[in-house]
Amino acid sequence: QVQLVESGGGLVQAGGSARLSCAASGRAFSTLRTAWFRQAPGKEREFVAAINWSGSTDYVDSVKGRFTISRDNAKNTVDLQMKSLKAEDTAIYYCAAHPSVASRKPSEYVYWGQGTQVTVSS
């Protein structure tokens, strides 16, 4: 089993940057596909970025070129570096993990953190 805890959220000025971190507890973390999702009030949970065991990455078009996902298996962490933030990036950001195939669907992920709020002021 895997437990995930997000950190790094807060209030950010439009055009600014933030770095989110997800700390994982679990022996099998290095074998999992890990991802970041976000959910704004009144909206569905949206895929943001993912990284698999080999380092291959996947990004939703709206954040491509602005966000970077990375992982450190030795520290059991996965980070999301966010740049050029916009008001529409405001959401609760969740770290998630999946033991098998790649997916952009929240329902396919079995491990979840509690989320961290990112608010972008404009």
Would you kindly provide a written description of the structure presented here, covering whatever features stand out?
- This protein is mostly beta strands.
- Strand 4 (33-39) and strand 5 form a beta hairpin.
- The chain has no helices and eleven strands.
- The strands form two sheets. Strands 2, 4, 5, 6, 9, 10 and 11 form a seven-stranded mixed beta sheet that branches.
- The N and C termini lie far apart (40 Å).
- The protein has strands spanning 3-7, 10-13, 18-25, 33-39, 46-51, 57-59, 67-72, 77-82, 91-98, 111-112, 116-121.
- 30% of the residues are buried.
- It is globular and about 40 Å long.
Short structural summary:
The protein has about 120 residues and is mainly β. The chain is built from no helices and eleven strands.
What descriptors fit this protein?
122 residues; 4-stranded antiparallel sheet; single chain; mainly beta
